[in-house]
Amino acid sequence: MKLKINSVEQDFPPGTKLIDLVNKVREAHKDNPVIKSLVERTGKDHITFVYNRRVVKPPQYESIDLKEGDEIRWILPYAGG
Fold it and tell me: pTM, whole model, 2 decimals?
């Protein structure tokens, strides 16, 4: 099935859950300096996931089954002040 991840269409097997995608993104970006710094200071990466224009809270990641055409975005927290 095709999903849009940060506006790029990608193929995923049917039955994929949002938690699978969350784990994939976290693994792929664990060496990002911003994420490393956040994990060192707070213990979490603070990546925000948006599913079909709705912000998803971490307890909901496992309950969302992805469907053909869904759009998922992930963003880092704003850094600055």
Answer: 0.86
Q: What pLDDT, on a 0 to 100 scale, did the predictor assign at position 52? A: 97
Return the domain boundaries, the chain: 2-75
Sheet holding 8-11, edge to edge: 8-11, 2-5, 71-75, 48-51, 54-56
Q: Please count the residues of the chain.
A: 81
The CATH topology of domain 2-75 is Ubiquitin-like (UB roll) (3.10.20)
Which H or E element spans position 22?
helix 18-28
16, 1 contact by CB (below 8 A): yes
| Cβ count within 10 A of residue 22 | 19
